[in-house]
């Protein structure tokens, strides 16, 4: 592996001093485009937005309404800015992540006092990364490296802009909830943005894996977000088995409940994220990327919107085809022209079909004696 494409104990972004960089070779990705790791649904939405005429102008105008300057002042005044003097190990991780993903400008990073484990990348003009003390205390070195790479991935993809808009609109929706129809309109936009953002989290998980290049560490971090700092009581393989049970278990009612449970969330469930990341790490796309075959940022201007939408459509088609979820199974049957759709819908919803042989006759109503039944 050449020096230009590998990061080791001495490879780091400009300005990085000696720090706890892994003593193992990791590939670097010069000029990597965020399209290389973005989830297909996330990528198609971003490519389309970037192609819209005047999109940047509209968001610059909107920035006057958003409390971005207030957020920056709040972090500066009431959080700790990561540097060589403060949280130096996080500073080294940040420089290293920017070096691996070849992010030209290192974004400022803050640690804020909050026992809830969380991290975010916000900002319209420039991205700002914020991590909570709860997260710093929860994760070990390699798990935290994946999180920092996750947030740098958000910055490289330009997600911070839409994340800031989502935060603003979420708060705005609460303020206009009393206005007839006003709250409904804003809530619809927030719901759509949340659906996009859940996909963007899957993209950023992939970026975190590219930075840390340690799948088990990435999976451990997600497991800790679900179960806390009791690693000796948890098992990654059992955690992944939960994801499979979640996807395949239950009947159609459970499928509907899954959708209802995830709608108000900005992030996918931790087990789902772990399973998605493991699938991607085992894919041919990931192997090609690790071999140095990936789209470059210099080619972003030539990215095709139609190709991105086609990839997104193919992804969803494959998801429906391979999913074990009962609802997705029903969708496959409808698409395939299933016979007795009404009966199959009832059986799928109630779970009755599972225990009855395919050709077993249903119980037929018996003819009652004429005259209304037995006489006393």
Description:
This protein has 376 residues and is mainly alpha-helical. It has helices at residues 40-51, 55-62, 68-78, 88-100, 133-138, 141-157, 159-175, 182-212, 215-227, 236-248, 252-262, 270-281, 284-290, 305-322, 326-335, 341-350, and strands spanning 6-7, 26-27, 80-81, 109-112, 119-122, 128-132. Helix 8 (182-212) packs across helix 12 and helix 15 (326-335) runs antiparallel to helix 16. The protein is globular and about 50 Å long. The termini are far apart. Residues 9-20, 178-182 and 364-376 have low confidence and may be disordered.
Brief write-up:
This protein is mainly alpha-helical and 376 residues long. It has 16 helices and six strands. A hairpin with a 5-residue loop joins strand 5 (119-122) and strand 6 (128-132).
Pairing-aware structural class of the strands and helices? Answer: mainly alpha
Mean pLDDT rating: 74
Q: What is the count of β-strands?
A: 6
Ends apart, CA distance between termini: 95 Å
- How much strand? 5-15%
Q: What integer value in Å does the Rg equal?
A: 25 Å
Could you say which overall geometry the principal axes of the C-alpha atoms support?
A: globular
Q: Uncertain segments of ≥5 residues (pLDDT<50)?
A: 9-20, 178-182, 364-376
Write down the secondary-structure element order.
Answer: EEHHHEHEEEHHHHHHHHHHHH
